Request: fold
Amino acid sequence: MTSLTVTTKTAADLAVDALVLGIVGTDDGAALAAGHGLPRKAVVHLQAVLADLEACGAPDELHRVVAVPGVKATSVLLAGLGKAGSRSTSFEHGVLREAAASALRPVRTKRHVAVALPTPDVTSVAAVADGAWAGTYAYDRSTSRAAGRRGRASAAPAGPKVTVVSGAGQGRAVKDAVARAATVGAARDWARDLVNTPPNLLFPQSFAEAVKKRVADSPAKVTVSVLDEKALAKGGFGGILGVGQGSANPPRIVTMSYSPSGAKGSVALVGKGITFDSGGLNIKPSTGMVTMKCDMAGAAAVAATVLAAAELGGPVAVTGYLCLAENMPGGRAQRPSDVVVMRDGTSVEILDTDAEGRMVLADGLCLASEKSPDWVVDIATLTGAQMIALGSDLCGVMGNDDGFRSAVLDAAETAGEGAWPMPLPASLRTKLDTPTADIAHKGDREGGMLTAGIFLSEFVGEGIPWAHLDIAGPAFNSGGPKGRTPKGGTGFGVSTLVGLVEGHAAR
Reply:
């Protein structure tokens, strides 16, 4: 596994396999970012290389140079930080995070890499550490070994030792920031691995087992309980049972609980965990199913967040509810126009079996609300409408409390995860009216992301601040890697939710 350390040693003196430095765009071309500490002969050599390459220092730019005089590193990677003065030492944290990730990706198989980007303060160090860890990610294919011939799959590289060169010293705050980046990064990688696991290997029961194993391997004090299909039926969880009844793999609700002694408040997280979404009887076109192993990304993010929060040892109790089901068109599958009764007794008419996520989440929200947490957040790859409205990089954030929704958006901004506020207009509630049940589970095509949020709001306990994160776009990257975003599962939401929990502790 990747490891993170911090040092204040001069970058040129680090005998590493690769050394990452920043470059900026100036009126005269690209130049080394200030604070590198390199000897003159190294600077002259690198400036000549940059001129020869006609480098411009753009944020997505990366150059690799070997045998730099006066530098002990085997190679130097020059990562673009954008336009800035040659003496500038202050950069947006998002720029530092993305540059570190982009630079680490091509050298993630190396033994030891040092990152010497401008870090004048603790938050800059934290951003660089976070990005560097993210850039080392590779899916551990050993988890899919059973899907192919024996011996064909190979494990992902172990990951390098990454040393962050700190311009902010090596005090307790800096060390804590780097340690936190490692904890959150490892949890985010687990979420990515869960999303990338083939769906014949990750189904509700095996997901539950994977959570138990990860918790058992962690020093964190997290308890895990599982409701199987019999317990779900006894408990009146009609939403998740209806979704899962067409599959040979029955549904589960996994509860993960971190309860520190003398907890300063309690919060709840609910994650959509559709381990594969065929659409049910409203079956998707074949092209629409290709990435549907990612439909459990919300549950993966919740699981990773609870684990990270517990390993960080914060004072807030955190409970995660993973709502796991497989949506298949079997002979017992749910039909359009069926009516089911949810955990809280609400009857719901099913109009489209491919709008299944809100049904498993609604049961989870009911269960979470029964504990009267200080707030509850659900996270889900919920609607195609989210991607139409906001694209693939931003998630939509809705809620029943403007102040709490703003706190979620602030946490996302700090974490460097794109989020945008969306309304829940009361006028759209009539789209969910039906003479057959208390509520229909879906409105028409217009405002689909918003009516999904309105539906979910019906199942949140009275007086509990709630926010809904629709991550349909940013949860999975079908294209090439970019910045700290790998191809495949992205782990989106983990950093935001961990930050939100920490923010609650600070109140």
About this structure: Residues 146-155 have pLDDT under 50 and may be disordered. The two ends are 34 Å apart (CA to CA). The chain is about 35% helix and 20% strand.
